[in-house]
């Protein structure tokens, strides 16, 4: 008899590692296989939905970070019967926006949010596919807070703790929930 896999182990089996992409020495964690298999995709979404159905964690709205955070975040919002808010790369939103610039390994990037995307006091779940250095999620948190929202938790499929992002986010007061940890792998 085989021992059943945990959700984390099951999902980890379906994350593809692409060596030396986008640069030599980088082990890219590709989540697209999680999305391609309907059974695996359901396990992924259900893991988030079951967590955030709990009254103490239930958000008023889900915010997804451009672009893979849109895929998971929109489905989670739908399943929770709450609204979805996209946080986009600069220049992609058509209405009045607020923006936040953050540092990347080489240069900087800016993300934007519509000024009417959230209301003061709304509880927001901020979701992305992966936490590396934490810059994108931190920028998303700041944007939402500029509008008066309360970011209750940051969620991601994958955490790459060696890059320090999850530690930085927690140090900044953001509760985090991730499904798969690739520390040292």
From TrEMBL:
Predominant subcellular localization, coarse grouping: cytoplasm
Keyword annotations: Cytoplasm, Glycosyltransferase, Purine salvage, Transferase
A GO term, aspect molecular function: adenine binding
Family: Belongs to the purine/pyrimidine phosphoribosyltransferase family.
Catalysed reactions, as listed in the record: AMP + diphosphate = 5-phospho-alpha-D-ribose 1-diphosphate + adenine
NCBIfam families: apt, PRK02304.1-3, PRK02304.1-5
Single Gene Ontology BP annotation: AMP salvage
GO cellular component, one term: cytoplasm
Protein name per Swiss-Prot or TrEMBL: Adenine phosphoribosyltransferase
Keyword Transferase: yes
Entry EC number(s): 2.4.2.7
Domain Phosphoribosyltransferase per the UniProt entry, residue ranges: 34-159
CDD domains: PRTases_typeI
Subcellular location: Cytoplasm
InterPro entries per the UniProt record, alphabetical: Ade_phspho_trans, PRTase-like, PRTase_dom, UPRTase/APRTase
Source organism of the structure: Ottowia oryzae
Role this protein plays: Catalyzes a salvage reaction resulting in the formation of AMP, that is energically less costly than de novo synthesis.
Listed Pfam families: Pribosyltran (PF00156)
SUPFAM superfamilies the UniProt entry points to: PRTase-like
Highest taxon of the lineage: Bacteria
